[in-house]
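Hi support team,

I submitted a single chain yesterday and got back a structure, but I'm not sure I'm reading the token output correctly. Could someone confirm the output below corresponds to the sequence I sent? I've pasted both exactly as they appear in my results page.

Thanks,
R.
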Amino acid sequence: MFATYLIGLREGLEATLVVSILVAFLVKSQRRDRLPQVWAGVGLAVALSVGFGSLIQYTSTSLLRTSGSREMFEAVTSVAAVVFVTWMIFWMRRAARSIAGELRGKLTDALAVGSLAVAGMAFLAVVREGLETALIFYAAAESVAGGTGLGSLLALVGGIATAVVIGFLLYRSALRINLSRFFTWTGALLILVAAGILKYGVHDFQEAGVLPGLNDLAFDISTTLDPNTWYGALLAGMFNITAAPTVLELTAWIAYAVPVLVLFLRKPAPPARPTPAADAPATDVPADVAAVPSPRA
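Hi R., thanks for writing in. Yes, this is the structure output for that exact sequence:
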């Protein structure tokens, strides 16, 4: 359940920061009359994300009649979730310094168009996080015992609620955290979670008969790594590390986790500095709490 909590926290905080930037910009610009359109767009994005998650769950449990088709569906969603996780963490690392300026620019353009444009801009800014959350949550929850049950759902909601509280405190300038460090640590953990999801997807492909080697175990340490112990349950639930993986599962886990972690933790090259110009407005913001401007500034 900690994996789904982490997903809710990470994705929820990204969405909360986006909303905070939009709201703070409108407040500072004396355009509070457009706040209802922002909240309408956010609400529609949340509703669509919940509906998408429900559709995924309904497809798996009700529309697919055979175990083979369900295995294939879970395998494909697992691979898709890994792709989204990988893209999301690298995109956030690259865009963290400029996201506030980009959002302000887009919102300025939307204000010039009208109310629907403001609502649409807020909707598009949040819906990506929501759809990603629904897909990744389903894949992560299905990769551990219990599936998308009440416990996993409560963990996801708890992570989102925590993110909303953190975002609100940042918005009110009541809390200061190093968001760059936060996203680095959570990004590294999510890479390991994604490796476990990929391992689960490979296992589903093997059970569906698409990939060979279902009975070819890499090792069996069931006597040492008892899944009934707290540490065995933690490793299985967080990173899908099991006592008896197949050769192909283990290969997929290592082949994804090692190079992606190395690339992610490698210090990125500093961006090229533009030619200084007199009185040029600054558009970049640091990847920390400064990305969420206070409405009282």
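A quick pointer for reading it: Confidence is low (pLDDT under 50) at residues 277-297. Let us know if anything else looks off.

Best,
Support desk
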